[in-house]
Amino acid sequence: MDTNNLLKIAKDYGSPVYVYNSEKIVAQYKRLTSAFNKVKSLKINYAVKALSNISVLKLFNTLGSGLDTVSIQEVKLGLAAGFLPEQIIYTPNGVSLEEIEMAAELGVQINIDNLSILEQFGTRHPKTPVCIRINPHVMAGGNTNISVGHIDSKFGISIHQLPHLFRIVDNTKMNINGIHMHTGSDILDIDVFLYASEILFDTAKHFKDLEFIDFGSGFKVPYKEGDIETNIEELGKKLSKRFNEFCKEYGRDLTLAFEPGKFLVSEAGMFLTKVNVVKQTTSTVFAQVDSGFNHLIRPMLYGSQHDIINISNPKGRERFYSVVGYICETDTFANNRRINEIREGDMLAFKNAGAYCFTMSSNYNSRYRPAEVLWHNNEAHLIRKRETFDDILKNQIEIQF
Questions:
Q1: Which H/E stretch holds residue 27?
Q2: Is residue 242 a known part of a binding site?
Q3: Residues designated catalytic
Q4: Which of 9, 76, 200, 350 has its C-alpha lying 20 to 30 A from 105's C-alpha?
Q5: Could you tell me the keywords of this UniProt record (predicted)?
Q6: How many whole angstroms separate alpha carbon 113 and alpha carbon 102?
Q7: Is 298 annotated in some ligand binding site?
Q8: In the chain, what are the domains?
């Protein structure tokens, strides 16, 4: 996707608009599978929550991917995209027993992360295969909101609660076929991840009928030039060796599973916005665009950085701008960022807009959610229409006064 293609997409479908490059998605998927090619059985379950458009899910289906889902709605979306139930793992947090039973009835792999539900489900459905999510109490993640393996996290069953876990499994005679962990997003230190993996291996030894071990994900992608990223190739080499050793100790080959989301789709995405106003104040030059945190909340929520390029004037003189939105609150995308000279009407492209961007969007200020476009086989394909005013009113019910 070059600049001319992006400008044409913005012209054809309007702005703001999300654009995803299928070639980058495929390349990231192949990079991950290649890094773990020494493992006899590898399962990549794409994390639907990162980017849940059904056309993107269908693309992953063609690659042989499975799905990682966190809600019954994501399970149904995966089934609608053509995935078989056995290709889907369902890992909710804090949901009702009824929702978990609904997922089990659909035939997907259940992954339970708390003792209360585990005991209830095991008592009622002892023959249904269940994976158990362990909290290894290992801190990973670039922000407290996405660090889920630490001791104060709401996710997973604490390794300090293993005696309670074993008691429940023994009493219910339930079928445990998998062990899972997730330390958090933006993993920087491979050794920390490998340390957490050893905790998972030690836990797995207590279960004799496992089919897979799921190591979660959270691989960091670069957000700016020279940024640190998870060294997938090094992790693949070290973890594959240790996993194969464990399988020999265990007595049979197991499947090594991952559930990446951001790693697969983040860099594939661009978010295009038009500059409405260039506003000079006493201390700052603002580039005010036709979007806000209703469309891309990550910089405000996580403090994340998205590189911003002026695709209308890529060779212009660089100047410093604060890029802000049109929401009636502070919605700053970038402070004092060096960008090629911005003029009113220029189109800006936000990089790394493939993961947790559209899926976290909203109608705040009664704004429409943008269109989504998939760049596939050198063509632009509209995969979600831009909302209209009818969509704002769609589920509202007017009463008479």
A1: helix 22-35
A2: no
A3: 328
A4: 200
A5: Amino-acid biosynthesis, Decarboxylase, Lyase, Lysine biosynthesis, Pyridoxal phosphate
A6: 17
A7: yes
A8: 22-262 (3.20.20.10), 266-380 (2.40.37.10)
